[in-house]
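Q: what does this look like with NAP bound?
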Amino acid sequence: MPRRDIFLTTKVWNEDQGYEATKKAFDASIERLGGKDAVEPLDLYLIHWPTPEKDTYVETFKAMLELRDAGRVRAVGVCNFEPEHLQRLKDETGEFPAINQVELHPKFQQKAVRDFCSANGIAVEAWSPLGQGGDILTNPVLDGIAERLGKTVAQVIIRWHLQIGNVVIPKSVTPSRIAENFDVFDFELTEDDLFAISDLDSSDGRIGPHPNDFN
Ligand SMILES: NC(=O)c1ccc[n+]([C@@H]2O[C@H](COP(=O)([O-])OP(=O)(O)OC[C@H]3O[C@@H](n4cnc5c(N)ncnc54)[C@H](OP(=O)(O)O)[C@@H]3O)[C@@H](O)[C@H]2O)c1
């Protein structure tokens, strides 16, 4: 597959945060991906977690902006950033990240993060968009919508992400599911469907750790 047909993202891991360490980690990632000539410019480079206790994400972001300005990556972003972390990046570097990848699925809808990102031109990307394939896939509300539309629950969830404006990255190692997860552009959820799904949100629906507790 030609390089241009792939949107290639990688991340800087928590232990590699810091100005110099990030630049080194970027070089190491490029080598692991096949070398500069094969993959640069990378499409997106992300900070994996804010790790606020370490307090290195601002320096990390400064290194990433330099990598972008040098043409080695087209866009830089973050993962698992709360509004206060995003605002601090803007205050201390003059820029918001292009994107914030956060845990986001019907049981944990991240309204505050989505509102902050939307107000500040930051794209939102949903990780674990299918709730990691857990019991959300047998939820009766979603099942009812899927049955009416002749689609699967996974397709209804992916369509919901797209209609509320999320970038969505469902993971599957199963070829038939990969095809199924792409097949979401021939139907639309109604306002009532979106309303019913917004009701599935739960404050304790998080699967992963809270970003402030993950250091
Ligand atoms: N930034 C972060 O901190 C962070 C954290 C976690 C994940 N992520 C990213 O988010 C991506 C996706 O998240 P995730 O893998 O945690 O969860 P996910 O995409 O919500 O769910 C993946 C699970 O759902 C199953 N599945 C996929 N499509 C399906 C379908 N059509 N019908 C039924 N089951 C289906 C998969 O099974 P099979 O594979 O067996 O088909 C797998 O067990 C990952 O690739 C990762 O890059 C980021």
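The beta strands are 9-12, 42-47, 73-79, 99-103, 123-127, 167-168. Residues 48, 79-80, 101, 127-133, 137, 152, 154, 169-174, 177, 180-181, 208 surround NAP (CB under 6 Å).
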